[in-house]
Design brief:
The protein is mostly helical. Helix content is 53%, strand content 5%. The strands form two sheets. Strands 1-2 form a two-stranded antiparallel sheet. A two-stranded antiparallel ribbon has the order 3-4. It is extended and about 90 Å long. The protein starts with 11 loop residues before the first helix and ends in a 45-residue tail after the last helix. The relative contact order is 0.10.
């Protein structure tokens, strides 16, 4: 153990040099994914603008990426056979879809495959695609030579450098092949969970080396050497793919604008799905999105002074017969109508009230209040001590 390198402190500059390739690679990968999503959606949109049929657009969309799809699914099937995983071919016409996204399910794996072998199978199209693009860029299209020409002559001789770059044999064919491979090689990241085992193993090895006294020098030199060089090479390949995608964005955007102007139709994407509209509606929606937002209304200042009920914004009732009625949510109200089975005769309503008839006769005078009523026939004055006041007046 005494022969192992001694511990030394890693400076901030060395740590920054170690992290820079990872940050650059992560930024390029994020930009590549965003460009890939935009390209897939707008290639699907151009196909719909030309056909106005989703089934035909779907077939043309898959046919455009056919070279990349073939390489992707072939490597998927071949590596599954090498790892002794059952892979069934499910080649069929793609189903109609309204979203610009490739569904690469022409080879279906067995449901019993473990996570590690699934991660290896899913990563193979990405690895093979990177190797093929590196070969096309360096050995066929000579991208490094084109960059050296630009670096030496700057922009003064750009036309000459571009002419030399495009003079390669079957230049546009190889550009198309590289474009389709680069936009179909990305795996489904949900199938890469098996790589956690490998990454966890590497982390354990680094911790064990550090605990045994290998020192920061061994770890830092190991990471700074081959790993950093590999990351830089991978970043350069991603940069070439991004440049190719930017070129296709310019070409596709021009074609899309011309088709929209000629046909008068357009479309936009909402939650990944394409929504058809006219070009005028698209321009109005775009201008509305770019228009400055109206300023928010300033809240009114609170009244100064002692709070009183006379300052509250209470609702005022209307005139008699015009009072506003507020209903609760969901209240339909109650309408009272006349029962059709019960109808009031119109004659009894409209006929005038008759006056009572007069009874003929003569009126009699009322007896004076001082007069006493006569006694009943069976009562005698001398047989009872009752007086006239003890009897009620029958009147």
């Amino acid at each position: 153990w005494s022969k192992l390198p001694q511990r030394r402190k890693v400076s901030k500059l060395e740590l920054f040099d170690l992290l820079t390739p990872w940050l650059v690679l992560g930024g390029l990968l994020y930009l590549l994914r965003r460009l890939e999503t935009w390209l897939h959606q707008h290639i699907f949109k151009v196909g719909w603008l030309l056909t106005h049929q989703f089934q035909t657009t779907t077939i043309l969309y898959y046919a455009f990426f056919l070279p990349g799809i073939v390489i992707n699914q072939f490597m998927y099937w071949a590596v599954a056979g090498l790892l002794n995983v059952r892979a069934d071919r499910a080649i069929a016409w793609p189903e109609k879809q309204e979203i610009g996204e490739l569904k690469l399910s022409f080879v279906k794996l067995s449901k019993n495959v473990d996570a590690f072998r699934l991660a290896l199978i899913s990563s193979t199209p990405l690895i093979v695609g990177i190797i093929l693009i590196w070969h096309i860029a360096n050995n066929i299209l000579n991208v490094p030579g084109f960059l050296n020409d630009l670096r030496g002559n700057y922009l003064f001789d750009f036309t000459e450098a571009a002419a030399r770059f495009t003079a390669a044999q079957d230049f546009w064919l190889w550009v198309y092949v590289a474009f389709t491979i680069s936009n179909t090689m990305m795996p489904d990241f949900r199938n890469l969970r098996g790589w956690r085992i490998v990454l966890t193993g590497l982390g354990v090895i680094i911790v064990v080396l550090y605990a045994l006294g290998a020192g920061n020098a061994v770890i830092f030199d190991a990471l700074k050497g081959p790993i950093t060089n590999s990351l830089n090479a991978l970043s350069s390949i991603f940069a070439v793919i991004i440049g190719l995608n930017l070129f296709m964005v310019a070409v596709l955007g021009t074609i899309e604008a011309l088709v929209e102007r000629v046909t008068g139709h357009s479309a936009t994407f909402k939650d990944g799905k394409m929504v058809a509209m006219t070009r005028q509606e698209m321009l109005a929606q775009r201008s509305q999105a770019l228009a400055p937002q109206s300023k928010a209304v300033k809240p009114t200042a609170a009244p100064i002074g002692t709070p009183t009920v006379y300052r509250l914004p209470l609702p005022l009732p209307g005139a008699p017969g015009k009072e506003p009625v507020s209903r609760a949510s969901g209240d339909e109200g109650l309408v009272i109508s006349q029962d059709p089975l019960f109808v009031t005769p119109t004659s009894s309503i409209s006929a005038p009230r008759s006056t009572p008839s007069m009874i003929a006769g003569s009126a009699t005078e009322k007896p004076p209040t001082s007069a006493k009523p006569a006694l009943p026939a069976n009562v005698k004055p001398d047989d009872s001590e009752q007086t006239y006041e003890d009897f009620e007046d029958p009147a």
